Amino acid sequence: MIKVLGRDNSVNVQKVMWCAAELGVDVAREDVGGAFGGNDTDAFRAMNPNGSVPVLIDGDLILWESNTIVRYLCRQYATGTWVLPTAQQTGLAEQWMDWYIGTLNASMKVLFVQLIRTDASKRDKEQINKAIADATRLWSILDQHLANRDFILGQSLSIADIPLGCGAYRWHSMEFERPDLPNLKAWWDRLVERRTYRKNVMIPLT
Ligand SMILES: N[C@@H](CCC(=O)N[C@@H](CS)C(=O)NCC(=O)O)C(=O)O
User: If you average pLDDT over residues 163-185, what whole number do you get?
Assistant: First the structure.
């Protein structure tokens, strides 16, 4: 069976677990990283020299980088609407996946570290306000894109929704004054309806 190494409260592990669940692929997850440790051993670093989670093991294949793992799962196991029909659709899906990890993730990470991992007395308000402003500007881009679509590529959930969907849980669950982004909220509500999303992504923020 496919194995995923990584704690369930990691946003990057959540991408992989949610994607596998949507594809109907059985995965055995092992707690590694964070409070569980185990990601700084020689054996782990032989698999992923970065010492980070997730790591996926599928037969002889060992893969790290969450977006890459999601793409691999899709290429190898997708059926039905999860098979992207054209290079154009694949390009658009990957654009949104990489936009999350390469652009939006920076401000989301600051918010997460400040609001979840830092004691209230030690928070940096200036950093928080800047991160809210940056993230708002970026989530607004997705909000506009979703004005006439149920999901990021259109009618069906796809890998394009996976990284941003994981980030959207954090955006809608952390405590701060959130701007009104109705299309984004409606899309997030559609994700929350899915049992796979609730089970693999909506895990208490710690
Ligand atoms: N770009 C990598 C980032 C991986 C990463 O930073 N993972 C974090 C968890 S979200 C990690 O391993 N942190 C150390 C730990 O959990 O001990 C990916 O997308 O997989």
Answer: 97
Ligand 1 atom with the shortest distance to the CA of 36: 17
Domains and CATH numbers, the chain: 2-80 (3.40.30.10), 84-197 (1.20.1050.10)
- The confidence score (pLDDT) of residue 157 equals 97
Provide the pLDDT for residue 136. Answer: 98
What does the pLDDT read at residue 179?
95
Residue 203 CA, ligand 1 centroid: distance in Å: 16
The rounded percent of the chain whose pLDDT value lies above 90 is: 100
How many A from CA of 56 to the centre of ligand 1?
13
Residues near ligand 1 (Cβ within 6 A): 10-12, 33-34, 39, 52-54, 65-66
pLDDT, tens digit, for every residue of 189-199?
Answer: 999 999 999 99
Give residue for tokens 């290079």.
Answer: 87
Q: Point out the ligand 1 atom lying closest to the alpha carbon of residue 67.
A: 19
Nearest Cα residue to atom 10 of ligand 1? 10
Q: Which of the four pLDDT bands, split at 50, 70 and 90, describes residue 58?
A: very high
Going from the Cα of 11 to the center of ligand 1, the distance in angstroms, rounded, reads 8
Judge contact between 169 and 9, C-beta under 8 A.
no
